[in-house]
Design goal:
The complex is a heterodimer. By secondary structure, chain A is of the alpha/beta class. Helices cover 38% and strands 26% of the residues of chain A. Chain A contains 10 helices and 10 strands. Chain A has a 6-stranded mixed sheet with strand order 6-7-8-3-9-10, sandwiched between helices. Chain B is an all-alpha fold. In chain B, α3 crosses α8 (190-212), α5 (144-166) packs across α6 and α6 crosses α8.
């Protein structure tokens, strides 16, 4: 695969908190237009990986390229300016801000401001519930609404690639379906995505390929339609958990 | 209490309240955004008053008062930014940032106070009023400068509110205060907005100092008493609520004026504390504060 065809190319990335590494040299790639799932037990580095890419934490080593450009040394703001958008897990956003205010604010970078109107229309069409509650404060939203707003905020940043961290955490099956449909809709626009998920059925329905993350490394790569069946994935997941 | 006396007390209360609102809102802005108290906030007031005096007074450079105001505001904004860069920023990632910055900003306060004493001496100074003369307000004659303070406080605070509510940077400042990580992830340069917050807060302190510098005498400790009042007001109004701060400032100013009238200038300050402690016993989160912060 040529360099330019990759949206995200991560090699030997090491990162962690304080003095210990959670990621011990992680390598993975996302091709342009590709949707990738990341799954694996809690505490094995999925969220840390996203944090290290978006610079919520500073990586301790390794290389990251986005659309062919090295970004390991770029600031959090620079990452957003380039369009690599991280939608964090269980984001409580800005408690005292209203929905519309939050969405408008999210178009903060110059590039995002230029696309503000188009993106806002798209977000409100994708999540009509946000349009209905435009004057409501973030802190009064339900879990599902907050997750919608969180993804909406990501879309307002004018993403060229989205990284979603557990978009359905704690949601009811019905809401999960709703969000899955919305995320699939975003994917059909050719947006490359990296989706962290615990719910394997959910993530399998959305992605082209999956990485199984274990102890801060990629333990396995699973292609869609490959011979790894659902049961095997469950065994991998729970077997690893029982062993650790 | 005669109507005349009532009017006098009321008007002096409003003047006091306006000063408190201006000084406390700057302190509150920094608290809401960075989660720290800037104890040098009152000293910035003093610095601005001295700078304006040096430029505009006949004993100084004797220039136009407008130039003095401009230079004074620019000077305290620079000082505010320096405080943020030098003694607050190094501790952003520290668990005990609140306590550490109490120490560092107290040090800055002492530094500015003693520095002012060395440069300008202990002799009382007074600024020329921005507007000379006297006006009648609610049946009481006050200096035009005091009337200016009464009018400017709501105007400046209104502008501050509009800025925070509607402008891109203002909304960014609120976002950073409410959730710095989420703000980072939409491309907000958190550290830059911290500087802007400090600059704004310093400008407010500076303007207050200049306005008050022709009503009161300027000494090196000029800003100390307003700082203590502002601290009380920010806590009383509810931490994290700029609106609460402003409401509390007006309440406290009026309360103080009435207490001074009824029980005298010596007991009034301590009675204010007693009342505040009683109120905080009933409402620990302050007037408009949230229960959890």
């Amino acid at each position: 695969m040529s360099e330019a065809a990759l949206a995200l190319d991560i090699r030997d990335l090491r990162a962690g908190y304080d003095s210990y590494d959670v990621l011990h040299g992680m390598s993975l790639h996302v091709a342009n237009g590709e949707r990738i799932g990341l799954f694996g037990p809690n505490g094995h580095g999925k969220t840390t990986l996203l944090n290290a890419i978006s610079k919520v934490i500073r990586p301790n080593g390794g290389s990251v390229s986005f659309m062919g450009e090295p970004i390991a040394a770029v600031s959090a703001r620079g990452i957003v300016e380039r369009g690599l958008i991280h939608v964090p897990q269980a984001n409580r956003l800005f408690p005292d801000m209203e929905i519309m205010e939050t969405l408008e604010l999210a178009a903060f970078t110059r590039r995002a401001r230029a696309e503000r109107k188009t993106n806002l229309d798209y977000v409100l069409k994708l999540f009509p519930r946000l349009a209905e509650r435009r004057r409501q404060q973030c802190k009064t939203l339900s879990g599902g609404e907050r997750q919608m707003l969180s993804i909406g905020v990501g879309l307002m940043c004018a993403p060229r690639m989205l990284m979603l961290d557990e978009p359905t955490l704690g949601l009811s099956p019905k809401l999960k379906e709703e969000l899955a449909a919305a995320i699939a809709g975003i994917g059909t626009r050719g947006m490359p995505m990296l989706i962290v998920e615990q719910d394997i059925a959910f993530v399998l329905s959305l992605v082209d390929r999956m990485y199984f993350v274990d102890h801060g490394e990629i333990a396995r790569e699973i292609h869609r339609g490959s011979d790894v069946d659902h049961q095997e994935i469950m065994d991998m997941y729970f077997g690893e958990r029982a062993a650790s | 209490m005669t109507l005349d006396a009532l009017s006098t007390v009321l008007v002096s209360g409003i003047v006091l309240a306006s000063v408190y609102a201006l000084i406390a809102s700057g302190l509150s802005l920094v608290w809401t955004t960075l989660g720290i108290f800037n104890f040098a906030h009152g000293a910035l007031m003093t610095l601005a008053a001295y700078l304006a005096w040096t430029v505009s007074d006949a004993a100084g450079l004797g220039l136009w008062l407008g130039a003095g105001i401009a230079i004074a505001v620019a000077g305290v904004v620079a000082a505010g930014v320096l405080i943020e860069r030098l003694i607050v920023r190094p501790f952003y990632d520290h668990r005990d940032i609140l306590l550490i910055t109490v120490m560092t900003t107290l040090a800055a306060m002492i530094f500015i106070e003693k520095g002012s004493q060395l440069i300008w001496g202990a002799r009382l100074k007074q600024l020329r009023p921005v507007v000379p003369g006297q006006v009648n307000f609610l049946g009481t004659t006050i200096s035009a400068q005091e009337a200016l303070i009464i009018a400017l406080a709501p105007l400046l605070l209104g502008l501050l509110f509009l800025f925070l509510r509607n402008s891109r940077i203002g909304r960014g400042i609120r976002a950073v205060g409410q959730n710095p990580n989420a703000a980072k992830l939409i491309g907000i340069d958190v550290s830059r907005l911290f500087i802007i917050t400090f600059a704004l807060s310093a400008a407010l302190a500076g303007l207050t100092g200049i306005l008050l510098g022709s009503v009161r005498m300027v000494t090196p400790a000029f800003g100390a008493e307003p700082l203590v009042k502002a601290l009380i007001i920010v806590i009383f109004g509810g931490l994290g609520s700029l609106g609460g701060t402003i409401v509390a400032a007006y309440l406290l100013g009026l309360l103080e004026a009435f207490l001074i009238f009824f029980i005298g200038i010596y007991w009034a300050p301590s009675m204010i504390f007693v009342l505040l402690i009683l109120i905080l016993l009933v409402r620990p989160q302050g007037l408009l504060g949230k229960v959890v912060r």
